[in-house]
Amino acid sequence: MTLRINGSTSGYAEIDSPAVGGNNTIVLPSGNGSANQLLKNGATAGTLEYASVTASGSELGTVTSINNGPLAGMRNRIINGGMQIAQRGAISLSNNSGAYGQCDRWLAGLYNFATATGTSRQAGLVNSRVAEIQATTTGTNASQVIVFQQRIEAANVFDLSGKTITMSATLYHDAGFSIAPAFNVYKPNALDNYSATTFIAGSVLPSLPSLGRVRYTFTTTLGATDANNGLAVEIAFPINAPITDKYFQISEVQVEPGPIATQFERRPIGMELSLCQRYYQIGVYSIPATGYVPFNTYVTTPRATPAITIIETYTGSGGTVADVGGRGVVAATYATADRRLAYSASAEL
Prior knowledge:
By secondary structure, the protein is mostly beta strands. The protein folds into 3 domains: about 1-60, no CATH class; about 90-270, Galactose-binding domain-like (Jelly Rolls, Sandwich), CATH 2.60.120.260; about 280-345. About 5% of the residues lie in helices and about 45% in strands. The protein is built from 2 helices and 22 strands. The strands form 6 sheets. It has a 6-stranded antiparallel β-sheet with strand order 5-8-9-16-11-14, with no helix packed on it. It has a 6-stranded antiparallel β-sheet with strand order 6-7-10-15-12-13, with no helix packed on it. Strand 1 and strand 2 form a beta hairpin. The longest helix has 9 residues, at about 270-275. The protein is elongated and about 100 Å long. The model has no long low-confidence stretch (mean pLDDT about 90).
């Protein structure tokens, strides 16, 4: 059956049903909607309602993945959120101090305990990697906390000022009791200088049981200038009881624009390594006892003039190496015997 509606002066519009009808009822909206809106099924199938569908509208804003994969490339402002890159060895931790751990870009720390010792390392699951702190502590102070933190360079987040961001991460521990972890966001008081910071926002998350592995999300809106100097994102495990050789893990950490946590973005490992090397890289250099002094170019341009540290000597003795204008290293003094060594170049925040 066809329903024909004639135009007021000429022509017509027809609504036709299938040859074999399905006994369906379609309920039209009571109003006219707004310009550029479409009709779609509402909460009840067959009941139509008007909806806006634009690139920045709420309909597309709630899409969390495309074909069960990441929504789009380079959404994640965290570097090494999948904990794939670990250029350092395992790092020892002590009470009331933080250090860059084995997983690149991640600071690890133990704070406000009576006593505390620990190790920061990379650990592996069946299909992923995690940043892990193994800790032994004493004390029952309510402010005792185990912390993972990443400091993000201003150039990578300044566009987020005044916008809504969402942080997500998968957390685990085996403390033997439930813990309410927290997500916190800070801003440095000066450009890329984290010697002094200001708290922006945070959230105490639902309780995480011992041996539980749970993915959490947190959404907040930044102030108009909050990300201009950079951002620090922190994952905290409050511990108000003594523990012995307990493990705390984070994985698949993501910070992205918008109010929805999308699927974790996995970048190629070579790309992730290059992103990490802007802040920390390792090289090999040979210092001669006499003769030509070679120049080693950095594999990635450092964020700033790096601190050079000799981390291992393979042969020979004596001699030192130094940075040259943030472009590479050269021997600063000759070796007493031809020396081959490994060095680190750190430009961490």
